[in-house]
Amino acid sequence: xxxxxxxxxKVIGEIDNGPAIMKSLRVGVFEVQCGAxxxxxxxxxxxxxxxxxxxxxxxxxxxxxxYSPHYTTTRVMKLPSCVDIGGEEPHAFGFCPTxxxxxxxxxxxxxxxxxxxxxxxxxxxxxxxxxxxxYLDLSAVESxxxxxxxxxxxxxxxDRCSLEQAISLWRYSADEPYISIAVQRHFNLVTGKAIxx
Length: 197
What we know:
This protein is mainly β and 197 residues long. It has one domain (6-195). Helices cover 2% and strands 46% of the residues. Strands 4-5-6-7 form a four-stranded antiparallel sheet, with no helix packed on it. The protein has a four-stranded antiparallel sheet with strand order 8-11-12-13, with no helix packed on it. A hairpin with a 2-residue loop joins strand 4 and strand 5. It is globular. The model has no long low-confidence stretch (mean pLDDT 90).
């Protein structure tokens, strides 16, 4: 069962990088226990918007977070030390995360996370403004290894919807690994034909 300690992150300041250069963000990491909040660390995000680029989860009793210090990376942070243990490297045309989600399941009134997989929404830098949903393999996350792929094809996260709201594991089991994902589709109103598939 997940313990009562949670970790969150929020913007605590901006960094002016000079003329014609986008500002960076100072992001504080906070431990929240019994309603009390205590800052345990911080990191720099080199993008002017934070989005939902920090997600705390547990695996085998240890605390981790998916986070994005560089706008084209998904990285793994060990908590509460806030030490970066691995993940993707920056790439000029990389996938830009805007939201993370590692699902929790309920079993006999207990919440637990297998933390073998998660999801990321975002876009390829410069491609378009819609957020695509991709899969994260977290099976070796303790070693700082994660793998991202687009096994679902080019599916878009609905506007005004978080990944947590869009993904359901109500039918998921080890024997039948079925999930449901709410996605956004586009249609020509006159012809009814789907576009951008």
